[in-house]
Amino acid sequence: MLDLRYIRAHRDHVENVARSRGITVSLDKLLALNDKLSELRGHLERAQAERNAASHAMAGLEERQRQAQRASLKALGDTVTKLKQRYAELEQRQTELASAVPNIVTDDVPLDPNPEHNRVLRAEGAKPTFSFPPRDYLTIAEKLDLIDTARAAKVSGTRFGYLKGAAAELEFALVRFALDYVAEQGFIAVVPPVMVRDEVIRGVGYLEAGGTLERYHLDADGLYLVGSAEHALVPLHMNERLAADELPRRYAGFSTCFRREAGAAGKDTRGILRVHQFDKLELVTVCLPEHGDEEFNRLLGIEEGLLRALGLPYRIVQLVSGDIPFPLAKTYDVETWMPGQGVYRETHSCSTALDFQARRLNIRYQRGAERGFVHTLNATGLAIGRTLIAIIENYQTKKGFAIPKKLRPYLNGRKDVTAE
């Protein structure tokens, strides 16, 4: 949520950013309602003061005068109650309108609604060469009986898959490798809940602007299945005030994630690239505002370090405003080269929400007499399925694929996966 004082002072900018993200906002209604609340607050404070003064005056009155004063006090009390009720109603409406306003974007983000204008900043790593036509991961995995989507479709429907044998073992090797790597960077390992309350997922900012279409909702329980560990990690400190010297807090959350892929009809329907259920290690940082840029670069550096350690070529892509999710202010995608498909595919993202999520979740810092809202950032450690795809394609051999050297210690020294 944006600070209403910021919206009032930068109204045109807020509207332009929202427009570039394809979101219509009602700033006229929001600011008019804020003015009305301010006026109503004055009435309420005066009524409360009058009631308190009348109550204090009771002590010096005779019984007959007290009876008359009691009637006056009751009328004043009724007025205060009605004003409080009206204030609560308007405040709720203000929260609803303010919650529909997306985050601003940082100054270096282009205001552009078209995701096709996302900009490649740089490419890293040498693409592998092969003495044979490279195959896509599913061709290799099905031949080795590592991925089974046909039987998963019988059990769960489309966009699900079984990981079997070496593929399942590789998943746990990747998780263990990534956890060891980020632990050296000061991240605390967390296994968070995969179901969160309605108000929590709303606080993180992923229900507005059509976000409910992407989430699985358990109506009877008032719970949402998380689409990322971020949805449970960012609210870890909701309604808390953190001492400045305890920041930053850095968490690495491993969880199963659930997404409807509502806007992906007909896209990547084969295999495990775009599925309803997947596992991921997500990095979340909670920090002081002045350390936000430093933490963003740290998170991006960790993503790159993981890919370099696995020997996977990649590129960094800056997203335009129209492609950045509702609660975020800046996002870089990291796309990994997939030689069997002949394209780069998104495997990681790195984002800052500034203080947008912290305001909605009431996560503050305190430094002496200074109090304010923290900044929250998130980044992909490893999206396990997509990293597995990248490994199979980049390390493919005629008989299967090799295992990156960094993963071999987690697989009892195994060097490859073949049909033999």
Write a concise synopsis of the structure shown.
By secondary structure, this protein is of the alpha+beta class. The chain has twelve helices and 18 strands.
Describe the structure.
The chain is an alpha+beta fold and 420 residues long. The chain folds into two domains: 74 residues, Serine-tRNA synthetase, tRNA binding domain (Helix Hairpins, Orthogonal Bundle); 304 residues, BirA Bifunctional Protein, domain 2. The chain is 39% helix and 22% strand. The chain is built from twelve helices and 18 strands. Strands 1-11-12-13-16-10-9-4 form an eight-stranded mixed β-sheet. A three-stranded antiparallel β-sheet has the order 5-7-6. Helix 3 runs antiparallel to helix 4, helix 5 crosses helix 12 and helix 7 packs across helix 12. The longest helix is centred in the first third of the chain and has 37 residues. It starts with a helix and ends with a strand. The mean pLDDT is 93.
What key phrases describe this protein's structure?
single chain; 420 residues; alpha+beta; Helix Hairpins; BirA Bifunctional Protein, domain 2; 2 domains; eight-stranded mixed sheet; three-stranded antiparallel sheet; 12 helices; 18 strands; 39% helix; 22% strand; elongated
